[in-house]
Design brief:
two-stranded parallel ribbon; globular; alpha/beta; single chain; 13 helices; TIM Barrel; disordered C terminus; seven-stranded parallel beta sheet; binds iron/sulfur cluster
Length: 329
């Protein structure tokens, strides 16, 4: 089993040793999942957020200048109908961290579940909530939850998110206790982050027993305190993806759109390093254009783009790995 030193070493590999690392990561992925890539549709439900992360244009301090939206349950359901016609069985409902989403998303979940006769992974990404709220969303049909810890360096976390890491980790524990399939993840290249801290991120999540992991290169966004900070390194992020695959081969690991934001072709390279998930954006354009996660000029990956990336990587689109009888598109 890989330890902290092993992982730290993997993060520094270059040249032929790095290519060997990627080959091992691809082999581990194939052993677990064959050539199937999980295809997820994301619906962005609100750009309102009560948190003030220094790296995010949707931070609370920008609320007064952002064009805020909060989709109604009916609007979420209408988009889900379109996703259903594509044969995609993972729907991620994602938004800023506000308590109102417990009600709005919760109201949409049972109908979306019915659209699929229950054969759907309803994945939420709505931030910290109380255990009672998580329990309520689970009862309404949610199956999985992404709650990235971003960095396991408690001082750095506090400095950039202005909240305590322990609160975030307590949410992960609650979600696991309640039977969710849980995803965490980190940002690579945050100012002040060390390689040891990244290695610790991976071990922390392995020890907590999460089911999904992600790593995204830091993208300095306009209108944030970190707008002038250097961007995260894509090559290091690829090493992180491969190290995650070897640390816990069963993790579902996306090649995220931030890879594409940093370098053209970056998302394809994530699959070469062992990723097995792609996310496409199903949010109606009116809302999507207000969801400023990397600023106004973010590149949005649609379904056709996701299919092209999968084909380019020599892989095949697939469905949720968390449903007992997965229907493949
Ligand atoms: S990263 Fe998430 S929690 Fe932080 S400000 Fe942005 S939307 Fe809110």
């Amino acid at each position: 089993m890989l330890d902290q030193n092993d992982i730290r070493t993997l993060l520094t590999l270059q040249g032929s040793e790095r290519e060997e690392l990627f080959a091992q990561a691809r082999a581990a992925r194939t052993d677990m999942y064959g050539d199937r890539v999980v295809v997820r549709a994301v619906i962005e439900v609100t750009n309102l957020c009560r948190v003030d992360c220094d790296f995010c244009p949707m931070r609370r301090s920008n609320t007064s200048t952002n064009d805020v939206f909060h989709q109604t349950p009916a609007e979420m359901i209408e988009t889900a109908i379109g996703v259903r016609t594509l044969g995609v069985d993972v729907i991620c409902l994602q938004g800023g961290e506000v308590p109102q989403t417990t009600k709005s998303v919760g109201a949409a979940l049972p109908t979306i579940c019915d659209l699929y006769d229950g054969r759907v992974e309803l994945l939420l990404n709505l931030g910290n909530k109380t255990r009672a709220e998580y329990a309520s969303l689970r009862e309404q049909g949610a199956t999985s939850y992404i709650i990235k810890h971003e960095t396991s360096d408690a001082d750095l976390y506090l400095r950039l998110r202005h909240e305590a890491l322990t609160q975030r980790l307590a949410c992960i524990t609650d979600l696991l206790d309640l039977g969710y399939r849980v995803g965490s993840g980190m940002i690579i290249g945050l100012p002040g982050q060390s390689l040891d801290s990244i290695a610790h991120d991976i071990l922390l999540c392995r020890d907590m027993g999460v089911h999904m992991m992600s790593a995204a290169p830091f993208v300095p966004a306009p209108d944030t305190p970190l707008a002038g900070a250097p961007a995260g390194d894509v090559d290091l992020t690829l090493n992180v993806l491969a190290a995650m695959r070897l640390a816990q081969p069963a993790w579902t690991i996306p090649s995220v759109s931030a890879m594409r934001a940093r370098v053209e072709g970056g998302q394809r390279r994530g699959f070469d390093a062992g990723a097995n998930v792609i996310v496409f954006n199903a949010t109606p354009a009116d809302f999507r254009n207000k969801y400023l996660i990397y600023g106004k000029n973010r590149k949005v990956s649609d379904y056709d783009y996701a299919m092209d990336v999968i084909a380019d990587a020599g892989l095949t689109p697939g469905g949720s790995v968390f449903l007992t009888e997965t229907r493949q598109p």
